[in-house]
């Protein structure tokens, strides 16, 4: 057995932190926080907001750890994921499972005790949707895995909204729809330039099952659909001029990158499209926040 020294504890903590997919969870939590801010007039109470943010972050991190645990064998076959501690064998199953369940338990306890039951159950359903339905059932079995499974990733604004109000409004559902429609271009751009990884892992991702032209066309169509969906906050009169300006610029760039990718495929263009997807979502949600702060209505 390895002696428990400070450096080995630090190494374990760092390895566990990576399994929680901290950058993905950071954006998930950001979208949930914007959902919280938009849900109430003025600024939400800091106590409840902090508890909800921590609770959602812990449960999302737990879901990511369970995903790494379940996928340790396929992760080991993919260059992008082979260094994960579950794939390399650096962390055992029991240790990872205990930490993931502790994070899940703590997150759920915070949500139940300090937020509300609706948020707690919706967050648990989101956890199950990603860690069980997507990871175990959809991902290995259908190229539509991320389209259906994307519903889990799109939940954060709904969770944030429910945390502040105890209910889910039309605007919360619109924010869900934006992330839901954003997910296919986000993931398929990556799946294109990482197709060799997915082939080695034997996963039925769209570029492998339907080929490159079909995938780039699907990406393009989803970016156009996404541009239409991003107009919905304006239709609900829940956003103003700042948001309008942001989506015009963000969508124009996303559609341009997707169109270029479809016209002339190159791994570099796919990588650029993937990177832009992350900036797109970050700036879109930031724009919703700025719009709230400097609200300029579009009509009288
Ligand atoms: C079913 C839904 C989704 C799938 C299949 C998916 C897939 C992926 C994959 C495979 C990566 C890894 C890229 C790499 O290691 O180079 C990634 C990165 C990322 N994803 Fe997603 N994603 C999904 C939903 C989301 C959602 C909902 C968010 C945030 C709201 C998100 C935010 C990010 C971010 C920030 C990164 C970059 C992480 C980094 O640089 O380490 N993703 N996504
Ligand atoms: C409670 C709550 C808000 C949960 C959120 C669930 C969650 C973490 C969703 C993000 C989706 C995600 C990281 C997909 C990665 O795809 P993948 O797992 O196929 O990627 P991989 O190959 O890197 O493992």
From TrEMBL:
Pathway: Porphyrin-containing compound metabolism; heme O biosynthesis; heme O from protoheme: step 1/1. The keyword GTP-binding does not apply. The chain crosses the membrane at residues 24-43, 49-70, 91-114, 120-138, 145-164, 170-193, 214-235, 241-259, 280-298. It catalyses: heme b + (2E,6E)-farnesyl diphosphate + H2O = Fe(II)-heme o + diphosphate. It is a multi-pass membrane protein. The keyword Transmembrane helix applies. Its EC number is 2.5.1.141. InterPro entries: Protohaem_IX_farnesylTrfase, UbiA_prenyltransferase, UbiA_prenylTrfase_CS, UbiA_sf. Converts heme B (protoheme IX) to heme O by substitution of the vinyl group on carbon 2 of heme B porphyrin ring with a hydroxyethyl farnesyl side group. NCBIfam families: cyoE_ctaB (TIGR01473), PRK04375.1-2 (NF003349). Carbon 2 of the heme B porphyrin ring is defined according to the Fischer nomenclature. HAMAP family: CyoE_CtaB (MF_00154). This is Protoheme IX farnesyltransferase. It comes from Vogesella alkaliphila. The lineage of its organism: Bacteria, Pseudomonadati, Pseudomonadota, Betaproteobacteria, Neisseriales.
